[in-house]
Amino acid sequence: MLKHIIYIVFCLASTVLLSQEVSISPELSLRNYFAYDILGDVDGRSVVVRDRGFAKEVDVFNRELELIKSEELLFEKKRVDVFNITELDTVFQVLYGYFEQDSMILRYRIYDNSVRLVDSMEFARIHKKDVRKKILCSQSLNDRYIMLMTEDEDQNLVLLIYDSVKRRMDWSSKIEVADNYDRRLDEVLVTDKGSFAMLFREKAWTSDKEELLMLLVDPRSGLQKFVKLGLGDHTGSDVLIDFDNKNNLFLIVGIYSEKKSKEAKGYFFLSERFESISSSSNIRYISFEANLYEELIQGRKKKSRVLEDIALKDVLFRQDGGFLLISEIEREYSRRNPYSGYARTGYDNYSRRSWIDYYNDDIIVSSISPEGVPDWNKVLYKKQFSQDDEAIYSSFYIMKTPSRLRFIYNDEIKKNNTVSEYLMDPAGKLARNSLLSTAYQNMKLRFKDAIQISSNSMIVPSESNYDLNLVRITY
User: Which of 157, 176, 195 is the last residue of a domain?
Assistant: First the structure.
């Protein structure tokens, strides 16, 4: 039965009374399912896809989050690999593939919000020798371009770009990557124009120097180049790449520290036009300010550890070409089971496993000007602690509007919990609100897996005891 609750809260920065409407869907079972995906708004309906291996089940909810349809997706063969499921305004799209003789057939299917098949067609074939790894995908922010990637038998990259508007393969290529490095693919970015970047973290076998290797490709201009960026006497962590579609600027950013030191010293970044980036591009460094450190250590017993636990989470672009860096203090501790020395058999998994404590604390927001100069830093205080749950209920979600950002999070990681938010305006001014209570609602909200469906509405998954509810919060 649909639960429908309205919470009234006061905005601490104003005398205006604000209200949130919270709708909760019926439960969906997650038992015997491997994963699920929330597609958000498909022509006024919310769609959930539950993955049971080779079986994909679609659940459709109306605007009031009442379940109106559940149906299994059927394909040409029983064993297909689904690479990507994306909502496209009034329909949703499934990209998938299967082997037939000596090839993998790549196809798309388009469904409406009643799970009726609208269109289906093959868009590419790949020889099975060119599919030696599981096909992964990455898509542009506007959902138009989807890149599929794998490796061939010689470990060359096999890449395809699919255009969701034209419903066809837009570009494909094989690219050789030098094998004299210990490669690790860290990030893949597809822009709204169909160009893409791949970031490899590399450490040469013959050198202790850490390098960032990027592959930059623009199919329309014919640009295709590898760029190596050295960090000199620094080491980098939490490296992110992003693209400012409005100002046509490519950004690579991360946290740097001195070699052989765990303590973070600040941020490093490179911001240039996509086609201008080269190995001679200048990486810039921004040191953490002393007052930021003082704010972070307030009330902490182990003051020296705080800068070792900073993790870069996200980048948000400003309208003027600057950007915001969003970081969080996070750490985890592994503890031995006290019964680990008393296992009676070699098959006692419980006695052998360790316990893990997760801490997700303060959020740091740093605003960087178009000239690369820090404008301000803000600390958003919170404390979250959980055990043995992979921190899936911890951290936060950022709801974006043109006039403000909302940082929404669980105050505590438990069933009867208060949800809070920080409101931030473009100048960094903050207000903290209590948003809603989950008491007696049997909800455990996973905010970092939420999706924003409009300027004033979001859907958050609530997962408890192998049951899933969709929770829509509307301002």
Answer: 176
CB 6 within 8 A of CB 21: yes
> Residue 282 and residue 416: Cα distance in Å, rounded?
50
Each residue of 128-160: b (16+ CB within 10 Å) or e?
eebbeeebebbbbeebbbbbbbbbbeeebbbbb
Whether residue 424 contacts residue 12, with contact meaning beta carbons closer than 8 Å, is answered with no
**Residue that finishes a domain, picked among 156, 176, 196:** 176
Domain that holds residue 102: 34-176
Q: What is the pLDDT along the chain (475 residues), one digit of tens a residue?
A: 444 333 333 333 332 335 689 999 999 999 999 999 999 899 999 999 999 998 999 999 999 999 999 999 999 999 999 999 999 999 999 999 999 999 999 999 999 999 999 999 999 999 999 999 999 999 999 999 999 999 999 989 999 999 999 999 999 999 988 765 555 678 999 999 999 999 987 655 555 667 788 999 999 999 999 999 888 888 888 999 999 999 999 999 999 988 777 788 999 999 999 999 999 999 999 998 878 878 887 756 555 567 788 999 999 999 999 999 999 999 998 876 655 444 444 445 544 556 899 999 999 999 999 999 999 999 999 999 999 999 999 999 999 988 999 999 999 998 889 999 999 999 999 999 999 998 878 889 999 999 999 999 999 999 998 999 999 999 8
- The beta strands (E) that lie in 133-244 are given as 136-139, 145-151, 157-163, 168-175, 181-190, 196-204, 210-218, 223-230, 234-244
Q: Which 3 state secondary structure label does DSSP give 420?
A: strand
Clarify whether residues 27 and 146 are in a common domain: no
Q: Is residue 22 part of a domain?
A: yes
Same domain, yes or no: 10 and 86: no
Q: Are residues 63 and 150 in the same domain?
A: yes
Contacts of residue 218, Cβ cutoff 8 Å, sequence gap at least 6: 193, 194, 195, 224, 274, 275
Structure token digits, residue 274: 């996509």
